[in-house]
Design goal:
The chain has helices at about 65-75, 85-100, 115-125, 165, 180-190, 210-220, 245-255, 270-280, 295-305, 320-325, 330-350, 365-370, 380-385, 445-460, 465-475, 480-485; strands at about 15-20, 35, 40, 50, 55, 75-80, 130-135, 145, 170, 175, 195-200, 205-210, 235-240, 255-260, 285-290, 310, 350, 355-360, 375-380, 395, 400-405, 435-440, 475-480. It is of the alpha/beta class and about 500 residues long. The protein folds into two domains: about 10-100 and about 225-480, TIM Barrel; about 115-210, CBS-domain, CATH 3.10.580. Strands 5-6-13-14-15-16-18-19 form an eight-stranded parallel β-barrel, surrounded by seven helices. It has a three-stranded antiparallel β-sheet with strand order 7-8-9. The chain has a three-stranded mixed β-sheet with strand order 10-11-12. Strand 14 (about 255-260), helix 8 (about 270-280) and strand 15 (about 285-290) form a beta-alpha-beta unit. Helix 1 packs parallel to helix 2 (about 85-100) and helix 2 packs parallel to helix 7 (about 245-255). The N and C termini lie far apart (about 70 Å). The structure holds xanthosine-5'-monophosphate (XMP). Xanthosine-5'-monophosphate binds near residues 312, 359, 379, 381 and 382. It catalyses: IMP + NAD(+) + H2O = XMP + NADH + H(+). Its cofactor is K(+). Keywords: CBS domain, GMP biosynthesis, Metal-binding, NAD, Oxidoreductase, Potassium, Purine biosynthesis.
Length: about 500
């Protein structure tokens, strides 16, 4: 007879945390959100830890190289989407690894023949007021001058005037060699009262620009995820079909961690993929696997050698897997059961396998709940898709700014490998995801900062200064449907939802 899980399968919305004793030490500034990304033996340190418990989803609408840099700056990690060619995915990874924080490849470049009118138009388009002038107008052409707002006065000049006639010429510019460190560049900027410093190669070609304001903001990112060469860390998605070609290309590009991206992880394909990686790279290549929703699935992937395991089927905001196929499990129940299995596994083997709750995070407090339930970090798609840094289009829908966000199982993504159950068909028979809009929310930095301030605050209420302590001390309660109503504003008319009010006196 079929096995029936008697307990209902619950979502994050059905739980609340009950506060524990908090001492005077339990202040948000004392909380550390550092958390393991990859497995480790008792008494040892993980090879990779995240500085904040957030990774971005392996999705076309979420994780490209731009998102990866923005998230690594804040202490998390992106997993670049695998539903693209191997060369394109590897190139994105390589761009993240080559990115030098504080060193800008200029995107607003001029030639000496351009006019003041063109300068004004470019400044409006890019929002940048400092523009290098190069012989060919490219970011790495031979430097011949610079134009800043101080070089022209619109009220007194004709828009036809040539850049060559009003730029600050090369001979008057202070520059530095391309191998100058950020600290040295900043010292030159300060000593010479500059706003920017061009770094040039030996043949006078422009390499980077360093800006005074960027150095200051670089210093204000204490959580940056950096490798031993001070490069940003980045992950990448792989599938169970072309791993023999994809994995070597990503490793060559410098990827820090891989993750098998699949809608269902309890499968021989995942074990074969993990085995191939271990056979070819031993433990030097780190790889997560998933997704699973019960103890059995966890055991399978743990024994197969996964470095971390992802939890979740059908809970994602754009997922329709549960509707289409009738498989899945409430994200909270899945997280709790898999975490119990992980803790038992740790007791038995002395190996701690980090868990990632993937999908279904709607409110910021769902992150805290997922951590309290035993997850070590969370994967977010919808959350990150809303930000400036996501690769998708920003559009206006009914008067509001939105970003496009589509599932990897939607026809738009064409990611058949993620839903592959073997065979030669190489295409999806039906969709498991939708194409949608999500409200535009501004910059990643501002939003992550706000979200994590809430997470830290709740952790303090639970008497926890670390995620491990939260997992240990948290008390969770199932809420009734009426207590959910009680939890929001109720029995009042909210002013921001009441547009038409007149004075009754
Ligand atoms: P959120 O809720 O953060 O979920 O938007 C992101 C996660 O959803 C999964 N995903 C999908 N699942 N059909 C599915 O059933 C899809 O088209 C799809 N696309 C992404 C994935 O695990 C992601 O991290």
């Amino acid at each position: 007879m079929a096995y029936i899980f008697e307990e209902p399968s619950r979502t994050f919305n059905e739980y609340l945390l009950v506060p524990g004793y908090s001492s005077s030490e339990n202040r948000p500034e004392n909380v550390s959100l550092k958390t393991p990304l990859t497995k480790f033996k008792k008494g040892e340190e993980p090879a990779i830890s995240l500085n904040i418990p957030m990774i971005s989803a392996i999705m076309q609408a979420v994780s490209d190289d731009g998102m990866a840099v923005a998230l690594a700056t804040e202490g998390g990690m992106s997993f670049i989407y695998g539903s693209q060619t191997i060369a394109d995915e590897a190139a994105m990874v390589a761009r993240v690894k080559a990115y030098k924080a504080g060193f800008v490849v200029s995107d607003s470049n001029l030639t000496p023949q351009m006019t003041l009118g063109e300068v004004v138009a470019l400044a409006e388009k890019t929002g940048h007021s400092t523009m290098p002038v190069t012989d060919d107008g490219t970011a790495h052409g031979k430097l011949v001058g610079i134009v800043t707002e101080r070089d022209y006065r619109l009220s007194r000049m004709s828009l036809d005037e040539k850049v060559a006639d009003f730029m600050t010429p090369r001979a008057e510019l202070i520059t530095a060699p391309a191998d100058t460190t950020l600290k040295q560049a900043n010292d030159i900027i300060w000593d010479n009262k500059l706003n920017s410093l061009p770094l040039i190669d030996t043949d006078d070609k422009l390499a980077y620009m360093v800006f005074r304001k960027d150095y200051d903001s670089h210093k204000s990112n204490p959580n940056e995820m950096l490798d031993e060469h001070k490069r940003y860390m980045v992950g990448a998605g792989i599938n169970t079909r072309d791993f023999a070609e994809r994995v070597p290309a990503l490793v060559d590009a410098g990827v820090d961690c891989l993750c098998i991206d699949s809608s269902e992880g309890y499968s021989e394909w995942q074990a074969l993929t993990l085995k191939w990686i271990r056979d070819h790279y031993g433990d030097s290549v780190k790889v997560g696997a998933g997704n699973v929703v019960d103890a059995e699935g966890f055991r399978f992937l743990a024994d197969a050698g996964a470095d971390f395991i992802k939890i979740g089927i059908g809970g994602g905001s754009i997922c329709i897997t549960r509707e289409q196929k009738g498989i899945g499990r409430g994200q909270a129940t899945a997280t709790i059961e898999v975490a119990r299995a992980r803790d038992e596994y740790f007791k038995e083997t002395g190996v701690y396998i980090p868990l990632c709750s993937d999908g279904g995070i709607v409110y910021d407090h769902h992150i805290t709940l997922a951590l309290a339930m035993g997850s070590d970090f969370v994967m977010l798609g919808r959350y990150f898709a809303r930000f400036d840094e996501s690769p998708s289009n920003k559009v206006m829908v009914n008067g509001s700014y939105m970003k496009e966000y589509w599932g990897e199982g939607s026809a738009r993504a064409r990611n058949w490998q993620r839903y592959d159950l073997g065979g030669d068909k190489q295409k999806m028979s039906f969709e498991e995801g939708v194409d949608s809009y999500v409200p535009y929310a501004g910059s990643l930095k501002d939003n992550v900062g706000l979200t994590l301030s809430k997470v830290k605050s709740t952790m303090c209420n639970c008497g926890a200064l670390t995620i491990a302590e939260l997992q240990d001390k948290a008390k969770l309660t199932v809420v009734s449907s009426t207590s959910i109503v009680e939890g929001g504003a109720h029995d009042v008319l909210q002013k921001d939802k009441t547009p038409y009010v007149s004075n009754a006196n």
